[in-house]
Amino acid sequence: MLRQYELVERVLEYAPEADEALLNRAYVYTVQKHGSQKRASGDPYFSHPVEVAGLMTELKLDQQTIITALLHDTVEDTLATIADIDQMFGPEVARLVDGVTKLSKIEAMPENERAAENLRKFFLAMSEDLRVLLVKLADRLHNMRTLHFIKKEEKRRRIARETMDIYAPLAERVGMYEYMREMQLLAFEQLEPEAYAIITGRLAQIRNQEGGQVDAIGFAIRQALAESGLTVEVAGREKHPYSIWRKMSERHVTFEQITDIMAFRVLVDTPADCYRALGILHQTWQMIPGRFKDYISTPKSNGYKSLHTALIYENSMRMEVQIRTREMHRTNEFGLAAHWAYKQGGARPDGQVGWLRDLIEIVDASHDAEELLEHTKLAIYQDRIFAFTPKGALHQLPKGSTAVDFAYAVHTKLGNAAVGAKINGRLMPLRTRLANGDVIEIIKSGNSEPQLTWLGFVVTGKARAAIRRAVRAKERQEIAAIGSKLFDDIASRLPGRIGKKAITAAVSRLGLADEEELMVAVGSARFTDRQVMEALAPGSTAELPDDADWPIQERAISIKGLTPGMGFVLAQCCHPVPGDRIVGLRRPDRKVEVHTIDCLKLADGVDVDWLDVSWGERTTGAVGRLRLVLYNRPGTLAEVTDIFARSRANVVNLQMVQRDEPFGTYEVDLEVTDLAHLTRIVGSLRASEAVAEAQRV
């Protein structure tokens, strides 16, 4: 553990203007407040904040960050308050300590809710000041270093999983690769102890068997570059054990099948020297096609710059080589912390970097804990590809991203309005997966809205959160529209006319926020008709016994202009189409389920409220289902689809459900305008020689 004078001397070495007295006071304060508290290792508890502060000095961070590291657990684990911190160390330190403290105060919550709330506060605190994140990452790194002292395996695994899923990726996103690698290694040891032991054991064997092979290859690289006049530093190592494990898992290969176990880093003076060194190495040894990456011309979103290539050394040995300048290396290893703006004139750095803005948007859009965790992991934990707008603007996206993900990466409004995409000049479906270097032009429409089906193929958290938010808003709007029609019918059964004053009073009596929420509540059957009537006109239902047949709906509710799947759903058991006589089933907090009046499900008896609904005049468009029995001979299916085409009916789904020589039974879902359209199609099918039987399902 760092002693008081050692910590202060470290800070003064790179920041001679730092307030030595304030640093000493913070050190003494944390020792006094934590007092006799012990860690699981048996060490005094104050050793932890002191070590976290030591990690911050290695990054040469400002004195406010060092003091925050020393005090970060005092509010959570001692009697100290934020007001005390503010009085003794100033408002800036108090705000930072409060930001870090908020991230750790939720241990009693269920795991998913706790983790989600942790993340929510984490991102909001980061958006104000990224030093909160740096202290938290150092705090988690030191806790991981001492994780093995915790006796309960379940707790160790929970902390390791949270580190692997959240904190290591966050360290990567701010470019702190040293932190990321160590966190992953320590978490890997807890989560996959057998795999960890096997891989580290095999790496030790390679090191012992091949002796100085790493040094020999490093010397050969240095010599080849020196002969061309380049002064370089070369460092070699075996690849990271977790990186090897992930590659084994993703590619389904054994340890022996991974050929590029060794990796070498070449440090040069200038960016031009990077490309010169690359050319020399490619002339000296054979490069492996497809393994070259230029992160200097197109840096990663966290600022990472380097050239990556893979070469075949003697005896067919493969090796990975990374080439960068010394300045790039410093930034690559410690990211944002390596060029911290606080060290130059006290300017406040912009915490709202692009990926962080996306995370804040996800926090705002997420509906619950599960959703927030899902979207956040999507946003921070994936490999990236590069794609371009037609004007050349670069956007980094996770591998597997689609044109919809790209549209939302450019702007949420563009994603919401997307109807198509041109990829490299060709019109392609929105679900098309993007490749590195693709140029994407999004085709938009002012009348377009996000589709629920997009959730089946988008991969970015930002796109998924925006789609769900838009769909929820549309659902609420349409449920409110149905509720408004139901409300008018309910109000019409009362003896007097209902005005604004009565509605405002009803909203208050039912404990709702406003009139819109009342319409949503009525549309989703949160209240019975009787409750709504009583709220509008107290005493109006008093004369009716509780078991009376409850007021009959006076007019059908039209669903014209509403979207299936939003305020209501068309039942999959009977596939109603415009022209059918229909009825709606109402369940509390569920969408109205629309059935045909002769649906067998209704005949079985359904113990829910029935709602008289109608299509409304000139309502068109729905999906009807047909069951066809076709003769099993060449050309029958072509003849049937020709009937669909001539009838202008679009086939949504066609599936063979049974095959009995000489017949095949198919189920077909068709987009039709109304019942008459569907009836004409059935008539045409029955007249065909290819069809043995055709009937609606």
From TrEMBL:
Keyword Transferase: yes
TGS domain span: 383-444
CDD domains linked: ACT_RelA-SpoT, HDc, NT_Rel-Spo_like, TGS_RSH
Chemical reaction(s) catalysed: GTP + ATP = guanosine 3'-diphosphate 5'-triphosphate + AMP
E.C. number: 2.7.6.5
Residues in ACT domain copies: 625-697
Domain annotation HD: ranges: 45-144
Record has Disulfide bond as a keyword: no
SMART domains: HDc, RelA_SpoT
GO MF annotation terms: GTP diphosphokinase activity
Coiled-coil intervals, chain numbering: none
Enzyme class (EC, first level): transferase
InterPro entries according to UniProt: ACT-like_dom_sf, ACT_dom, Beta-grasp_dom_sf, HD/PDEase_dom, HD_domain, NT_sf, RelA/Spo_fam, RelA/SpoT_AH_RIS
Keywords: Transferase
Homology family: Belongs to the relA/spoT family.
PANTHER family: BIFUNCTIONAL (P)PPGPP SYNTHASE_HYDROLASE SPOT, GUANOSINE-3',5'-BIS DIPHOSPHATE 3'-PYROPHOSPHOHYDROLASE
Task performed by this protein: In eubacteria ppGpp (guanosine 3'-diphosphate 5'-diphosphate) is a mediator of the stringent response that coordinates a variety of cellular activities in response to changes in nutritional abundance.
Name the UniProt record assigns to this protein: GTP pyrophosphokinase rsh
Species of the source: Novosphingobium kalidii
